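This part of the workshop introduces the protein records we will be handling. A record pairs a protein's sequence with a compact description of its fold. Comparing a sequence with its C-alpha cells is the quickest way to learn the format. The record below serves as our worked example for the rest of this section:
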Amino acid sequence: MPEVSRFYGIIIRMFFQDHVPPHFHATYAEYNALISIETGEIIEGELPRRAYRLVQDWAELHKKELKENYLESLKKDGVISRIEPLI
C-alpha cells in the first residue's frame, strides 16, 4: 500500500484498486481508520480525536489530490502520488 503522506506521527496510505466509496487509510500508533475522501468521516476503525482532527484538516486541504490519487489507484498502471504533509 503506497504511502501518500506522513505528518505528526500519522501515516496516510492508499491501496491500488480498493473498494468504494473513495477513501484513504490513516494510521496513528496502534490506531487505524478508513477515511472518506468526500466527507472526511471515518468509514471504519478509529483514531484519537486529535489525530482525527489533523487528518480532517489535511484531507480538506488536499481533497482534489486525494480524488486524483483514488482515480489513479483504480487504473491498471496507475500512479499514486505523494501529497504534501500538514505543516
Summary: The beta strands are 3-7, 10-13, 23-28, 31-36, 42-45. The chain has a mean pLDDT of 96. The chain is about 30% helix and 30% strand.
